[in-house]
Automatic annotation (TrEMBL):
Record-listed E.C. numbers: 2.3.1.-
GO terms (BP aspect): aminoglycoside antibiotic catabolic process
Key words of the record: Acyltransferase, Transferase
Organism from which the protein derives: Umezawaea endophytica
Enzyme class: transferase
Lineage: Bacteria, Bacillati, Actinomycetota, Actinomycetes, Pseudonocardiales
Protein name from the UniProt record: GNAT family N-acetyltransferase
UniProt keyword Acyltransferase present: yes
Amino acid sequence: MDIREYTEDDRDTVLRMRKLAFASAQPPPEKLVTPGRLGLLAHDGGEPLGSLLINDFAQFFGGRAVPTGGIGGVVVDPHARGRGVASALLDTALRTMREQGQSLSALYPTVPSLYRGRGWERSGVLERLVFPMDRLLMSPRAPHRLATRRATRADLADVHACYTDLAATVDGLLDRHAPTFQPEKLLDLDVATLVHDADGVLRGYLTADRERDGLKVHDLVAADLDAQLTLLAELTSWSGVLDTVDVRVVDPAFTGLLTAQAMRIEMSVSLWFLRVVDLPAAVAARGWPAAAGLKAGAVDLDVVDEHAPWHAGRQRLVVDDGGVRVEPGGSGAVQVHARALGPWFSGAQGTAALRRAGLLSGEAPLLDQLVAAPGNPRLADFF
């Protein structure tokens, strides 16, 4: 079996395998190979066996965007299943991501056992909430409703800045950098509303599509309460037409603190897995706000990771002068499995839970003190 980067000449082959695997009703993309994305194709003597896609992302953790390879489109041709094709593709992807400087990797696990076997583990959620219109109408009203208008091309940079200001405060969200993300696609959406103050300064935005079964909200992002409630008022303006509104959760403050949810709510949750591809690089790239309040200290790790040997073995995580780094050495007193690194790094699980799951042994309170992540790590983009 050989694995290579696929090209536009492989379009029909890759799309055929994706259609078999996912039965997607979406129209095929105009181009298979696009900026910010790298595809791998496994083949045997020219016979295609499977493929996957690596998206060039960055996820916010601790207020800093960490380079991340977003794995998607993992497919194996039916006749080639059971031959280790997907595992070989993932091993190649790990090496590729490290070479590209992507110290983390995220994916949505259609086959959890496959990805757990290569070191990915559950580390956060993507949530959608369906709000009955009568509940939205019970939500607070804006005391100072701001002006709104439709977005134009001239607004795209400001909209992206508005998003990243929020995303930097929510662990797990992507920074949506170009060229992987194309900001101009916002202009094709049915709803692209901006909210701004009297001086024209952007305070928030709402994007959505009107679908047959209702309004599907992609982003509701705002810098403050007045902007949040102004955009909420736009949602309630659909009360004469729609019974419900489907909202993708980007800002947990909006869905969790401002809307009048009942005790039971209708929610769809997609779980995502995270993997630390290169521990020293990931730790160097992450923000560590809690480190500023900690005394100098260290945790001697023994990293068990047969699929990423470059960081396996004894590594010392050091906290010093408010900074955090990983360097070779130490006693290896705390054994940590590759699967434990993702949920610890994201803040999804503490060391007690990882220990009960058999993914960590030894006492390491400093690991918990460092992450101290509020809320549930989340993505707001599916790939």
